[in-house]
Amino acid sequence: MTRSPLPNALRPSTRMSTLRLAVALLVVVTGLSVAASFATYDTAATQGSAPGVGGTLVATIDATGPGQIVAYHPNGSVMYHNETYGIYHDVDPAPTGSDTVEYVATYHNESDACAGETCSVDVVERVNLTTDETTRLHTIVDTENGSSDDHDVDRINESVLLFANINYPDSVFMVNTTTDETIWEWRVSEDYAPESGGSYPGDWTHLNDVEYLPDGRVMVDLRNQDQVVFVDPGAGLQENWTLGADGDHEILYEQHNPDYIPEARGGPAVVVADSENNRIVEYQREDGEWQRSWRWADSRLSWPRDADRLPDGRTLIADSHGSRILTVNRNGSVSWSRDFPDGVYDVEILETGDESANGSSAAALGLESGGVGVGWTATFARLPRLVPPVVLHGLLYSLPLWVTPFDAFLLVVSGVAVALLGVGEAVRWYRSS
Ligand SMILES: [Ca+2]
Ligand SMILES: [Ca+2]
Ligand SMILES: [Ca+2]
Ligand SMILES: [Ca+2]
């Protein structure tokens, strides 16, 4: 008895041809998508227009994007722009008056201070956005040529600044800028084992944010430990206040810029840009425990790194890889947005105070949590989330700025498909030879 021939569709050669065609098509679609992003991307924060957000908006971009600081008038037109330093992180309204901000920026150069080696120099400066008058407040020279040391600075009073130091020795410290004296420091290594977080002593904690609380405590963001911690400058770490747990990504996942809302404004609560989870969250302190009280995301939100609760109940968000700045209403809808280059780090509306300084808790405001949308467009936009977030965001960090999260998703899928096809072809060739 002879076996009947296989139907065409099941013949290995035909199957291979169909596979080759499908992979080729995928590669073409990926190429077209990337080309379209290249053709339409606008790296200039000073281009384009959007209505004003209802105040003076200031935004920074760090090494993720085309590093710069830009300010917009309440009507949306450009007020100030500077890219001298190449890397800008925290910006805050200055206590000295309207249209004046303080920021921390970084540049790399060879300096006598580092024996001719390349240095990372962090500067804290105050600039009047209307007159361009700039004052240097503090300089930190770091001989290690890694990521810039200081991503956040918080002003305690006229002469004391509080720094967040992401590199070894991973600490927060207060400096009297008049005398240049360090008057207090807490090193994470006093309370955390080297096995926690990232690789020790490299990018161990990625301590990227610090806040001096109205009650005198210091709130510290340990990004790589997925935790926000509270330190009493006299008594040390308050372990029972810690929000999040190392590796428990249900709570926080390599977050940025937590803002504390005290009891007087409906807290204790903390608003956090939960970056690798692509969402903004708020946790409320109830009976000695942190409970999630609010969550917001839409299908575009990608690696957000700042969220400020505004006095009117809106939340201002820096959507780093979603390439936009936006505000969200109390009911969870997007009330305003402006396209912005990839890599926005910190956003502030000057008239509303530093970060969430005059904002109330989600619980007090009765904020509605926002979902990521329904329908096929939302599903389509969410496809990049099939790629593990650290892989996707790592790719977006290293690829050109005009590559969108969707392009990165297609590149990953195409890459995997081409690799699998290659392996299949090799196996076929091996078996037939
Ligand atoms: Ca800020
Ligand atoms: Ca700050
Ligand atoms: Ca904030
Ligand atoms: Ca902010």
TrEMBL record:
Membrane as UniProt keyword: yes
Segments passing through the bilayer: 408-430
One Pfam family per UniProt: Arylsulfotrans
Keywords: Membrane, Transmembrane, Transmembrane helix
Record has Signal as a keyword: no
Protein name per its UniProtKB record: Aryl-sulfate sulfotransferase
Lineage top rank: taxon: Archaea
